[in-house]
Amino acid sequence: MKILLATQKPFAAKAVAGIKEIAEGAGHEVVLLEKYAAQSDLVAAVADADAMIIRSDKVTAEVLDAAPKLRIVVRAGAGYDNVDLAAATAHGVVVMNTPGQNSNAVAELALAMMIFMARTQFTPATGSELLGKRLGVQAYGNVGRLVGQKARALGMEISALDPFLTDEQISSAGAEPVHSVEELYSTSDYVSIHIPALPSTIGSIGYDLITRMPKGGVLVNTARKEVIDEAGLEKALEEREDLKYVTDVMPDNYELLRERFGLRVFATPKKMGAQTAEANINAGLAAARQIVDFFATGCTRFQVNK
How far apart are CA 269 and CA 292, in angstroms? Predict the structure, then answer.
């Protein structure tokens, strides 16, 4: 089978070598499409692919229409909102992610961002400490639990909200369960967001929630840009001079936010939660193994478009 490794933002060379070793060892061919200039390049490259590994690359209905042989797409990472799941299902294409492979990298970044903002972006101004502060974790999955674990080691108190977990499951994972998003925000000095971008969550975090945070509240977003109501965020920062926002998914209005609110706002130049050598390799190798297993045994354990 032909496996297209389509990565506008390429994997590390070690990851590519590992993917090839796994796939070619099972009798498959690996073809690279790296740093491509336009979406049309992906549309052209997928024409004879049986499988595809992607990162943040967009698998649209147009891409799927151009890929009559395609049977599986694996997103090397946890989020998969860059894949049109409905179109994939209509084309009979299995879509998988690689949950847990990037989790530690994202969790470490979330903690680093908290420290960065607590210390006023490492300027000489007087900062604050995380010790004794309450962290609210919005979605307590693979990443959220690691964030809670690492924050607890720094002496923070942890609350968590996750509609898919029982109170007992949250408590056993080291956090105090809360029962509404309003409660999470109103009781947390820091909120770390780990929800996916779904119709029910897009634009769901805005003025009303952000302004519920206690004095000096810091909102940390290593999830998706789309979950933030950016106009509401701007209004909240305008009315509450004590609030801060830090993210690795740059808002559309970032230059305006930075100009107006200075050190109270920070965004990385590009999404970098999974940008570690370890996560890069782990996710790529997991994607290759999942494709090999799919063709060998029909395994669809990590399918997300069931």
Answer: 35
Asked if 231 and 196 sit in the same domain, the reply is yes
- pTM for the complete prediction? 0.85
**pLDDT tens per residue across span 209-233:** 999 999 999 999 999 999 999 999 9
pLDDT one-digit tens code per residue, 48-69:
999 999 998 999 999 999 999 9
Cβ atoms of residues 147 and 137 within 8 Å = yes
The domain of 93 spans: 2-101+275-297
Average pLDDT, the chain: 96
The two three-digit tokens of residue 42, written as one number: 């992906």
String of DSSP letters for 47-112: GG-SEEEESS--B-HHHHHT-TT--EEEESSS--TTB-HHHHHHTT-EEEE-TTSSHHHHHHHHHH
Q: Are residues 127 and 86 in the same domain?
A: no
CATH code for position 280? 3.40.50.720
66 and 154 assigned to the same domain: no
Question: What is the SS3 assignment for 20?
Answer: helix
Rounded Cα gap, residues 22 and 12, in angstroms: 16
> Residue 257 to residues 237, 238, 250, 267: CA-CA distances in angstroms?
9, 9, 11, 10
CA-nearest of 239, 163, 145 to 201 is: 163
pLDDT at 17 over 90: yes
> What is the distance between the alpha carbons of residues 250 and 147, in angstroms, rounded to a whole number?
21
Q: Determine the 3-state secondary structure of 148 from DSSP.
A: helix
Specify whether 125 is located in the same domain as 24: no
| Amino acid identity for residue 302 in this structure | F
Residue 97 and residue 149 share a domain: no
